[in-house]
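User: Predict the complex with shikimate-3-phosphate.
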Amino acid sequence: MSSSAAAKPLISYAAPALSGTVRVPGDKSISHRALMFGALAIGQSTIEGLLEGEDVLRTAQAMRLLGAEVERQEDGRWVLHGRGVGGLTEPADVLDMGNAGTGARLVMGLVASHPFTALFTGDASLRSRPMRRVIEPLSRIGAGFVGRSGGRLPLAVIGSPTPIPITYELPMPSAQVKSAVLLAGLNTQGTTTVIEREATRDHTELMLRGFGATLSVEPLPDGGRAISLTGQPELTGQSIKVPSDPSSAAFPVVAGLLVEGSSITVPAVGTNPLRCGLYQTLLEMGADITFANPRVEGGEPVADLVVRGSSLTGVDVPAGRAPSMIDEYPILAVAAAFARGTTRMRGLAELRVKESDRLAAIARGLDLSGVKLEIEGDDLIVHGDGGAPEGGATVPVHFDHRIAMSFLIMGMAAHRPVRIDDATAIDTSFPGFVALMNGLGGRIEPV
Ligand code: S3P
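Assistant: Here is the predicted structure with shikimate-3-phosphate placed in the model:
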């Protein structure tokens, strides 16, 4: 799919005080992993609350093509019968991962240690994204790659029949690269180790343990950590409950903060500390957010988020926090545009290689909406005066779901309505977004 295929422009008008309780869809990262581990486990796995967005449905299809049984039941649960570690089979068709970097990179890892060749492609955005970051370590394991210039999709992964366990230090903080190496390590004899200098989301580690793998996490003297996986474990089918995605909850939460007088609740949101940088930052900005009923569900911490309209103040967001909020900078930048004072978001190099060049896309959208900002190196600096930005623009979203949703949220509280040129990408991660926001009192409409 590309932005030129039947674009769906939307307009977002200023909203009255928002109220209500809305459940946002399941966590995207956890949903991808649940399908992959279910496909590798012996016996039956069931998944409750799977995100049924485009990205995750592509992973479900990839698991079917690799030989697993994957079915959606009428009650909304997904049931898998896995192949056992090392039991995936050659796919009879190209694995089209759509818009999903996580799906593509993790499945490339899985295939790298199986003795067959698999072909990968994706939409225009995914075909422009860097795959060298996984090709490099997976080549060391023994896999071969034939792809386009710049290590981009479409490409063929020639899996190794005799994969070699490696110790790999991540050159960038990336849970996708970490996970690709660990997943390749599953069907590799011996111990595969990934060293990360900055902690990234640990859903792979938590869920692998839950399925029965032996995995250790050693803190390193310089603050990093070494994650070691013992190869060829027997994974056993599990029942998984997927928490609501904190990255998706961010949109109604920020809307609730920005629209004066709002009071909303978003239940059962994942609060894994490696995903919560946005919430920490919003609290520092003066946001009224309560984490009610904290509990553990399906091995992950969750809480009900209770949000009230708030006046925000600009803050300095350290680079070290970026891995725990990497997908949330577009919506944080929108919040910063309403804050009093300057918000400096440091160390955003990785934003340039997301579903779009998000740094450029955020800057363009803010600029078109009358917000003062600068980019200095890899830092984004947004100046607010505590009032609502002008709005009134049509923002190009570059087929990026998070850019699209962020600017629709801006329209809910800006002086003039905000349009986006295309809403199609929203379904990759947040089906039902518009209806959900309108159910809280928003007014987002087709143009
Ligand atoms: C993800 C990791 C992050 C994030 C992406 C999901 C994951 O990507 O941006 O949306 O599920 O592992 P990077 O690993 O490239 O930072």
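The pocket of shikimate-3-phosphate is lined by residues 29, 102, 174-176, 179, 201, 326-327, 350 (CB under 6 Å).
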